[in-house]
Specification:
With 149 residues, the chain is mainly alpha-helical. Helices cover 62% and strands 0% of the residues. It contains six helices and no strands. α1 packs parallel to α6 and α3 packs antiparallel against α6. The radius of gyration is 15 Å and the shape is globular. The N and C termini lie far apart (37 Å).
Length: 149
């Protein structure tokens, strides 16, 4: 049985994809300061999932470019939406395979370093909440760019 936290993350991802529906490449490249570009946001969420669920949990980093263009605290960038969505799909597919196979009790296990001490369950919650933050940001950017809905 998949833990409810994993199901919540999957639902949140579907809502995030809905917030991205209809965003074109040109709009995704625009940066309305102090906010980041939508392309960066997509890469940033892929970066976070990769960091927790792949790099820390499994010692694999399938898309190292994310560390360069979308890491927390890095310089502002405006990466291609197409490229970041491809990276996001690769990362979330690999993360889902791991998340879907978590045994009972795994949510209370610690993620290996580097990084702050965090359990697997805490990391899933943090990623889920982070998606909701950026859903709001994407919707605000879309309004500023004149998207009517």
């Amino acid at each position: 049985m998949v833990p409810p936290l994993v199901e919540q993350l999957r639902f949140t991802r579907s809502e995030w994809l809905r917030a991205l529906r209809g965003v074109g490449e040109a709009d995704a490249l625009r940066r309305i300061e102090p906010m980041n570009s939508i392309g960066w946001i997509v890469g940033h969420l892929a970066w976070q999932e990769q960091r927790y669920f792949l790099t820390r949990a499994q010692r694999v980093t399938p898309v190292p470019l994310l560390d360069e263009v979308a890491a927390n605290g890095g310089p502002p960038t405006t990466p291609s939406l197409r490229d970041m969505r491809a990276a996001w799909r690769e990362v979330t597919s690999a993360a889902d395979a791991w998340l879907g196979s978590l045994p009972a009790g795994a949510l209370s296990e610690m993620l290996p370093p580097p990084g702050p001490k965090r359990t697997v369950g805490d990391a899933i919650q943090r990623v889920t909440y982070h998606y909701w933050f950026h859903i709001g940001e994407i919707l605000a950017i879309r309004q500023l760019l004149g998207h009517p809905h």
